[in-house]
Amino acid sequence: MKPTLPTPNRFRREGGLTLIEILVSSALLLVITLGLTAMFNQTQRAFQTGLRNADVYEGSRATMDLISRDMEQLGRSSTTNLHIVTNGCLPIAQMLPDGSTRMHQFCFLAQINNRWTGIGYKLTNSNGVGMSGLMRFATNYSSSLEAGNLVRDFDLAWGEQLRPVCDGVVHFRVIPFSTNGYPPYDLAGLVNISSFPQPGTFVDPATNYFDFANCVPGYVQLEMAVLEPQTLEQVKGLPSTSQLSYLASHVNRVHVFRQQIPIRAAQR
Question: Nearest-CA neighbor of 174 among 85, 79, 61?
């Protein structure tokens, strides 16, 4: 029997990949890598957006709760119980579903037992054009007669008399309603006597000015729009001539909050 001789190497067929197969594999690997990278970036952006929104929601809801707790104590006296006036801060040029943006500030008397406390919320235009910081004012009065100085004290309040509450406010509006749900004026802009029959109520819808004396509204609707902190820092770095146009083009960075506050002292 003859032994089997090994096949020479030159007659063997070596296994491997051709150049075309390598190019196709590389292209597929590149597509998979790009897809995973895009998915990771999208997830990262969504995570960062969620963090920013959580900060805005937490701070804004805390502010709304603070104002709500204060306004629920609104009392009835012979002086001005609730004073709402348009602030001088220039609002952002954006439209909300039920109208354009407003910048209100207001003060009111809160009664706790026999003690009268004057509380107010004022906007300061320290952040730049179209953005304001919300400040809280509070002072005590020994009697309802002394509490008649509330509006004067609130208008003159400044510096250490004000405490910062919220930053980056671009819309702040307070709308009073009667106990039956009607606003204090009709479509013609006249005082709705049937809703607020008590004397001393003055309403001027053209300037959004409300002054309730000898009576209190049944409900107050509070609206507040806050800019995201990151966008707020970006706007602060822009010149004042460009801030309004930048804010108007970044509507998706503004978060709107609305709450209806019942007044305990109102006659139901």
Answer: 85
